[in-house]
Amino acid sequence: MIVPESVNPPASSSFAKNTRATIGVLGEEFVADWLRSQDWQILHHRWHCRLGEIDVIAQSQMPQCLTFVEVKTRSKGNWDSDGLLAITPSKQKKLWQTAQLFLMAHPDLATLPCQFDVALVRCQSAPKKRAQDLTPGSLLLQKSQLPFPAESDLPMTRTIAGYQLTLHHYIPEAFTL
C-alpha cells in the first residue's frame, strides 16, 4: 500500500484506496509527460471500456507506431518487483483484448504497428524543503519545470503534488501475444 509516511490508515479504508488511485494517476501523468518529451503524441490517458483500462495510448512518428503503455507505480519495498510481477499472463491477455476494442473504436489507427510497453515508477513522499535549503534562485524554476532527460538517462525523478516519483524502467515491447 502506498500512503504518505505520516499517515498509516487501515488497508481497507477509503482513504488508502483514494491515495493509491491518486498516486497511480500521478505515475501515469508522469510517464505521459516523459513520452511527450520523447516526441510521442499522447492519444488517450486512462482509456477504458467494458473489459478494462489502458493507462496511456501514445503514437510515435519515427518509426510510426501505436503503443499501449501499462504504468505500475509502487512504493519502495513492494512485494512485486516494482509492479513487474503484476503483469501476469492474464493481465497481458486483458490488455490485449482492451487494445483490440480500442482499435475497433478507432479504425483509423488499426493499420499502425502496435506494441505493449511497461513503465515502472517508484513513489515516496517528497522530502520537505527547509528554510535553510532555499536560495533566491530555487523558487524561480522548480525541478518539475525542467526538460526531461533522454530515455538513456533513466532513472529520473520528479516531485509532483507532494510525491517524489522516479521512472526507473521503461520497457518497450514488454510482451507480445
From TrEMBL:
InterPro entries: Restrct_endonuc-II-like (IPR011335), tRNA_endonuc-like_dom_sf (IPR011856), UPF0102_YraN-like (IPR003509)
GO MF entries: nucleic acid binding
Domain of life: Bacteria
Family to which this protein belongs: Belongs to the UPF0102 family.
PANTHER family from the UniProt entry: UPF0102 PROTEIN YRAN (PTHR34039:SF1)
Record-given protein name: UPF0102 protein C7B65_21725
